[in-house]
Amino acid sequence: MTIKDTPEAWEIRATETPFVGNKTSVRTDEVVMPDGSVVKRDYQVHPGSVAVVALDGEDRVLLIKQYRHPVRQKLWEIPAGLLDVPGENPLHAAQRELYEEAHVKAEDWRVLTDVYTTAGGCDEAVRIFLARDLSEAEGERFEVEDEEADMEHARVPVDELVRGVLAGELHNNCLVVGVLSLVAARAGEGLDALRPAEAPWPARPFES
């Protein structure tokens, strides 16, 4: 038996969008179940996201701390952002986010992992990249606003982040998945065996 996610689409009898927001919306589908019954399923429609585990030469990960209103906390996170343009190359989006949120560029990019953040209630897909060979970006810093205007920055050793994740002190899903995937990749075939930065992504197809 191969343990691998597989595409499948159950019949939808009707659909509506009762809420449309600035970046996301809520959709209600009437879905036919295996026994023939029809049930309603509500979920958030999301454009997708990218996130970056930016690893420096001292084995530290670049973090930002940002207020997240739904959970009423300031969370330590890795740089991340929405795929604002349909079909946008996720590598380009990740490079943009690293520049805008940290004013950093990287020479070596790999795909660390792809995840659905909350598949039971949202179709958000996130591609998490590993970025290495970091340096300060050229030009002026990106002008931030709203929650981003209050961001803090830090570079934290990988071992300290693993401890914080397992101790329940760090909760951002991309940070948790990204850091633990980094450690697992090192323990396996190594970071150079990771997928290339423009590997196919069926959840959010793009053009190179």
TrEMBL record:
<protein>
    <submittedName>
        <fullName>NUDIX hydrolase</fullName>
    </submittedName>
</protein>
<dbReference type="InterPro" id="IPR015797">
    <property type="entry name" value="NUDIX_hydrolase-like_dom_sf"/>
</dbReference>
<dbReference type="Pfam" id="PF00293">
    <property type="entry name" value="NUDIX"/>
</dbReference>
<dbReference type="GO" id="GO:0016787">
    <property type="term" value="F:hydrolase activity"/>
</dbReference>
<keyword id="KW-0378">Hydrolase</keyword>
<dbReference type="InterPro" id="IPR000086">
    <property type="entry name" value="NUDIX_hydrolase_dom"/>
</dbReference>
<feature type="domain" description="Nudix hydrolase">
    <location>
        <begin position="44"/>
        <end position="178"/>
    </location>
</feature>
